[in-house]
User: Fold this.
Amino acid sequence: MPDLRASSSRLPPGSFTNWDRTMYLETHAHASSTNWTLSTLDFDRLLSVVSAAEAPVAKGALDELDQKLANATLVAPNKIDANVVTMNSKVLLHCASWEEPREYRLVYTRHDACNPGEVSVVSPLGAGLLGRRVGARFALGNHASSRSFEVVAVPYQPESAGDWDL
Assistant:
């Protein structure tokens, strides 16, 4: 699969056009049984994150994010379902090793380190959360140290709240 990070000089971050979206999807799409729903606003902003060659992140997280972008169904922000995890959403997440579910906000930071209660989209957990729906279950890690998660609720989603400037 081509790596968009290698062609990061095409356009300045944040200036992606419909043509750029189409070209990205055509050159990166591959067969996948999972189809992610992303807002067009998140998609455009995340292209900048993935194309930033200097982003100090785990390769696996960028690969997963790249796959989600390549296989995304793009929806206008005002049309995305309220139960989908989008950028800046607050997510209630359950893990069997925790005593109770935890709430996180999915953020754009290009670093794994975030403020308490935040998870970066370029971390393995953040990349795993993006585009998931309430009730979705997913695992992270290898077989020996795998952890299973479930999206319990999306108590806040910017799109459904009409917050377009986050």
User: Anything to note?
Assistant: The domain at 90-157 is CATH 3.10.50.30 (Chitinase A; domain 3). The longest helix spans residues 40-51.
